[in-house]
Amino acid sequence: MKRLLKIVAAGLLVGLMHSQASAATVNFTGNGGFSGLSNCSGCSITNSGNQLNMSGFNFFGGPSTLVATDISGSFATNKNDYTIGELTWVNRATFFTDQNFNVTYTFALNFTSPGNSFDSQAFSLTIQQPTNPPGDTVLGFTTGTLAGLGPFTLDGVTVSDIKIHEEGAGSFNEATGTWTNPEGGTSHLYITADFTAAVPEPSTWAMMILGFAGVGFMAYRRKSKPALLAA
């Protein structure tokens, strides 16, 4: 009987290792870009759509900028709050910046492993640049809009809990989608997600246990049969 239990335990271990290995690697790219700039005198989009140059000018460092960083990742699950997108806002003290204008930021997420999947989400942003010294504001990164991106169900991996948080001199209000940055500040906005390897359902585990128990019992019977014949 002890041998039977060892066989069942070994079988379950092999099955568990196989289920994890089959969904072990995630490969993705997260790309962001700007388009649809309107109502802004002196603004521009450069760097193949990855950089927004805001209004006004500065004698020492150019205008304020909002830069989308393209990110790629390759890792083994599981991951929590893994960065899939990034925006960097450098708010320089500039002249002639009393403007409110609009721009569209589109974030695209593409997976090539463990399964192919693609989705994108557009954010309609309103940028407020009051005359100094008040800081500037970006509106439009609402939780409701972000909910349109994912979740993804890949081959054995679930991508969920896609959300935004801020690091740096600024602040981000998740409820209103308001991103603020003081004059002279640098603020980073990160899009993150959880990656979770699929776990077999209880019914699947039950079938696995019965299967391995059956194999172990047959092996146990074959081993015991010669002893019974000799008796």
Structure description:
A 7-stranded antiparallel beta sheet has the order 5-1-7-8-9-13-12, with no helix packed on it. A 7-stranded antiparallel beta sheet has the order 2-3-4-6-14-11-10, with no helix packed on it. The chain is elongated and about 55 Å long. Helix 1 packs antiparallel against helix 3 (202-230). It has 2 domains: 2-18 and 201-230; 25-197, no CATH class. The protein is built from 3 helices and 14 strands. Helix content is 23%, strand content 47%. It is α+β, with helices and mostly antiparallel strands.
Annotation, overall tally of beta strands: 14
Global shape = elongated
Distance between the termini: 20 Å
Uncertain segments are 12-23, 201-206
Give the biggest sheet: 7 strands, antiparallel
Brief description of this entry?
The chain is an alpha+beta fold and 231 residues long. Helices cover 23% and strands 47% of the residues.
Layout of SSEs?
Layout: H1 2-21, E1 25-38, E2 44-46, E3 51-53, E4 65-69, E5 71-76, E6 79-90, E7 99-113, E8 117-129, E9 136-139, H2 143-146, E10 152-153, E11 157-168, E12 171-173, E13 178-181, E14 186-197, H3 202-230
Antiparallel strand pairs: 1-5, 1-7, 2-3, 3-4, 4-6, 6-14, 7-8, 8-9, 9-13, 10-11, 11-14, 12-13
Helix pairs in contact: 1-3
